[in-house]
Amino acid sequence: RTRSYVSLSLLEGQMMQNISLRKGDFFTSATGDSLSLQYNGEYIRSDTARRGLMNGSGVGFCLDAGYNYIVPDGKSWFRFELQDMGLIIWNRATERYQLNGQNSFTGLVIDDINNLSADSIEVPDFKDSLQFDYSKRRLAMAVQGRILLSFTHRVTSRSYLHFATMILPNRAAWPQIRA
Questions:
Q1: Which of 145, 136, 127 lies closest to 87, judged by CA?
Q2: pTM
Q3: What is the DSSP letter of 118?
Q4: Residue-wise pLDDT tens for the chain (179 aa)?
Q5: CA atoms of 58 and 137, how far apart (whole Å)
Q6: Terminal-to-terminal C-alpha distance of the chain
Q7: Other residues' Cβ atoms within 10 Å of the Cβ of residue 143
C-alpha cells in the first residue's frame, strides 16, 4: 500500500495580474547630468469587467498527484508530490502591454539659488515617454504549481527523521555569471 493519489480539479480564474521584466537598466549618463531607465518586459491583466462567483474571466484545470515509495525495511519512505500543476485560459478581454523603451530625467534647473520662487525653478519632463504596445486577446497561463520531494525515516515509535524540499518550477531563475 503506497497511499498514492491523483486528482484533477476545475478552476475558475477571477483575477490575474502579471509583470514580467526581461531586462531593466538604471544608469547615469557618461557626463553624470541625467538618469536613464531602459526596460523590456510585459504587463498582463485579466478582464476587469468580470467578477464574482461563476462570472470569472478564466477557466482551467490543475492536477494534484502523490506517490510514496516505502523502503522494504518498512521504517523509511520517499514521497514525490505534484500540487496545482495546470493552467488557466483567460478570456479575450485580457489586456497585454508589451513594454520596451527608455526614460531619461535631467533633474531640476534652478536659475537663482537665492530666490526660490516658482519662476526660478524649472522641472523638465521625461525626454521619452513610456513606450508600449497594447493588445487584447485570449491567453493561457500556468498556475503556480509545486513539486515536493521528501524522505522520512522512523527512528523510534515516537520520533522521525524527515528531509524535504519544495520546488516552484515557474519561479525558477537561471544563475547569471558575468565576466
A1: 145
A2: 0.65
A3: G
A4: 678 999 999 998 888 888 888 888 877 877 777 777 788 888 899 888 877 677 778 899 999 999 999 999 889 999 999 999 999 999 999 999 898 877 777 766 666 666 655 555 555 555 445 677 888 999 888 888 899 999 999 999 899 999 998 888 766 555 554 43
A5: 12
A6: 53
A7: 19
Beta bridge partners of 80: 67, 149
Query: Dihedral (C-alpha) 114, 118, 120, 125: value to the nearest 10 degrees?
Result: 130
Please compute Rg for the chain using Cα positions: 26
Cell of 115: 530666490
Instruction: State the DSSP H helix or E strand holding residue 119, giving kind and residue range, or none if neither.
Output: none
Quote the CA–CA distance of 18 and 58 in Å, as a whole number. Answer: 14
Distances (CA, A) of 138 to 58, 89, 102, 127, 144: 9, 7, 29, 34, 19
| Residue 70 in grid coordinates | 516505502
**Cβ neighbours around 145 below 10 Å, total:** 19
